[in-house]
Write a structure and sequence with these properties.
mainly alpha, 7 helices
Length: 208
């Protein structure tokens, strides 16, 4: 849990710097960034509560975190508050939160190891690819594809269903397994699309 906590602290420090460096902006335009950072901070209690199997409380916290994933983007567009900080930290928050949750639910036996493994590997491919691209060719524009957004959405829904099943066990095991399969399919599609698109851009940059 210390890794997640360090990420949360780093994000909070980055937000503080962002607020100071962009003090000329109306404070309302900082709301989306604050919500994004809140989502990352909530990762810590969510993972702790999952490991303690306090599912009734963690379900509500996870639902709030999932809602902010939509709300921060909507507010950023509505308030014309798109920023470099938000573009970078938003996908980082998603990855840290979902990796932490999937590893936690695996540790308490709610999902098979291979599901958590695929989620982690998919994000590892994307993050390491972004770092390599930035190192070789310069600034990397964080612009998630439709497949990446769909994969993240599916993972958030899967997490809420898994946690909700522990409080309200209404779904058959077959439905949960079907949900796991959708998570895996979307993870492979989004990772493959990422490698195809940014691999192509890397080849183009190399040939110039």
């Amino acid at each position: 849990m210390t890794v997640v906590a360090r990420h949360a602290t780093l994000a909070a420090n980055l937000l503080s710097f962002n607020l100071e460096s962009e003090g000329r902006l109306n404070w309302t335009k900082q709301i989306p960034n604050a919500l994004t950072t809140l989502r990352l901070v909530l990762t810590v209690p969510i993972c702790i509560l999952i490991l303690e199997k306090d599912f009734s409380i963690v379900l509500w916290i996870a639902a709030i975190a999932g809602f902010t994933d939509w709300l921060d983007g909507w507010l950023a567009r509505r308030l014309d508050a798109m920023s470099r900080y938000g573009a970078v930290i938003d996908p980082v928050c998603d990855k840290v939160m979902l990796i932490g949750i999937f590893v936690s639910v695996w540790m308490v036996g709610l999902v098979p190891w291979w599901l958590a493994f695929i989620v982690v590997v998919r994000d590892f491919i994307i993050v390491s690819g972004a770092l390599v691209y930035h190192w070789l060719y310069g600034r990397y524009e964080m612009d998630p594809s439709i497949w990446g957004k769909l994969s993240t959405f599916v993972q958030i829904v899967a997490v809420l269903v898994i946690l909700g099943q522990q409080v309200y066990p209404v779904l058959p095991e077959q439905a949960l397994q079907a949900g796991w399969l959708i998570v895996v399919i979307m993870a492979f599609i989004s990772a493959g699309h990422y490698v195809y698109v940014w691999g192509g851009k890397a080849i183009q940059n190399k040939s110039v």
